[in-house]
Amino acid sequence: PTLARVFAVRDLHTGTVQIEGQAIYRRGKFYAQGRAKARQVTVLSPLLIPGPLEARTDYTFENSQLNLTNLTLSAWGGAAQGTLQANLAVSPASFHLSAQLHQLRLEDALRAVPPARLLTNSIHPIGAIDGTLSATWSGWLERLKATFDLTFHAPASAPRNLLPINGFARGTLEDERGWTLELAQAQFQTPHSTLSAQGALIGRAEPSRPSLPLSLRLVTTDFEEWRPLLQSLATTSEGIPLVIESPVEFSGRLAGTYTQPSLEGRLQTGRFQYHGWTDRKSTRLNSSHANIS
């Protein structure tokens, strides 16, 4: 609780922190340096639930400026290594993180981000994440601005109920009056599909925040890979009465918000069955507020 008040992190819960070093107080100024370790630290926020964290770092403290170097954060089966600067002279404290990411478990990372849980609950992706992350925020992830450049690696083998993912994603994540994910470029490969995405997705609509569409292009030879995701977007309890017996190409735009998405585009396929009716042609698919029609 004491550390939570110092860093204005109101959602810091359990954990053990060990700090050692040297401190000097002279002529009204305080200076300290040393090393610190943290074990099983648990924090919560509406945007991120990272689970228990392990950390170790060197630190210096001078003039209300805390600098962490040789910082290693362990979570989600992997690690983030880099530096963290904190300005404790302001309230709430402000932070800047620069880190390299190594072998984070994709499925754990997605479960930790509430907006991404739709993916983990429907298609069950699996893979490892490497890349870079730069972020600034105040208090506990308030006014967050992050830039990321990530690479995804699928495991050599995966259980049949999981979807291995390869690919990359570059973009930004901001959380001012609601989160905004903007993808400058992203591409994901599964065993039977390639999905490309570019644009933005927002958490909630506001008059001052126009919705920027997310352009999507999906090419797949196995529609069943994506049926659970599309099924979760559909409001009908009967599911999607569509069986596709040929390769599929979809290009379109995802607009609206995370809670009220609007999807429209063009679905190109060969032989398919819809409500038991079979045909071969190019089909236009439109969806409004997650109603697939």
Short description:
The chain is mainly β.
Task: Describe this entry's structure for a reader.
Helix content is 9%, strand content 59%. By secondary structure, the chain is mainly beta. Strand 3 and strand 4 (65-75) form a beta hairpin. The protein is elongated, with a radius of gyration of 23 Å.
Query: Which percent range fits the helix content?
Result: under 10%
The overall strand count is 19
Rg of Cα set: 23 Å
Instruction: Profile the largest sheet.
Output: 17 strands, antiparallel
Overall 3D form: elongated
Low-confidence regions? 1-9, 284-293
Task: Give average pLDDT, whole number.
Answer: 82
Secondary structure topology:
Blueprint: H1 2-6, E1 16-26, E2 29-41, E3 53-62, E4 65-75, E5 78-87, E6 94-105, H2 106-112, H3 117-122, E7 125-126, E8 128-138, E9 142-153, E10 163-164, E11 166-175, E12 179-189, E13 193-202, E14 214-220, H4 227-233, E15 242-244, E16 248-256, E17 261-274, E18 277-288, E19 291-292
Parallel strand pairs: 7-10
Antiparallel strand pairs: 1-2, 2-3, 3-4, 4-5, 5-6, 6-8, 8-9, 9-11, 11-12, 12-13, 13-14, 14-16, 15-17, 16-17, 17-18, 18-19
